[in-house]
Every structure is written in C-alpha cells, then in structure tokens.
Write a structure and sequence with these properties.
With about 90 residues, the protein is α+β, with helices and mostly antiparallel strands. It contains three helices and five strands. The strands form two sheets. A three-stranded antiparallel β-sheet has the order 2-1-5. A two-stranded antiparallel ribbon has the order 3-4. It starts with 5 loop residues before the first strand and ends in an 8-residue tail after the last helix.
C-alpha cells in the first residue's frame, strides 16, 4: 500500500510527500535543513487547508504553488522571495 502522507516544515518553508523526506535519529525531517515536520494523512488535506487560508488571504494559493520544490529557512523569506520575483503579494500574514 502506498504511503500517502504529506509533510511540511515546522521550522522551515518546505512541503512535500513523505517519500521525499530525510531522517535524523530515526525521525522524519526536512530533506534540506533537517527541521522537524508536521504531517497530514494526504496531499488533498494540504491543499484543502491552503484553499481555506486563501479564501481569507487572497494570493496565498498561488504563493504556495510557486513554493513547490523550493526550500526557505522561514516563511517570511519565502514570501519576500516570491514577492520580489513575481511582484505579487503572497497572502501570508507575517
């Protein structure tokens, strides 16, 4: 059975499938910085949460889509990079 869990950084701005993680001391962690991860049962729950936040903070979904396959040490750094690159607001409440 395929593991459908979806994870995201507790201390960094990275997200992805459980299959993309690294481990540290047997614990799942970010493959880039080793930060601990939060976990959801599947990717659908991730995007449902993104859409819920986007409903009150327009632009957030596009920001998160842009972040796919990227890693930032903080959400603020990710938002600043997005806004500098695209000229769009991230929708993040920083």
């Amino acid at each position: 059975m395929k593991d459908t869990r979806f994870v995201y950084g507790a201390r960094c701005a990275w997200f992805g499938p459980i299959s993309a993680i690294s481990t540290r001391g047997g614990l799942p962690c970010c493959p880039h910085c080793g930060s601990v991860l939060y976990e959801l049962p599947d990717e659908k729950q991730w995007w449902d949460g993104v859409d819920k936040y986007d409903a009150e903070h327009p632009g957030y979904r596009k920001f998160v889509e842009w972040m796919a396959d990227k890693h930032f040490t903080t959400h603020k750094a990710a938002a600043e990079a997005y806004e500098a690159e695209t000229g769009l607001k991230s929708g993040m409440k920083l």
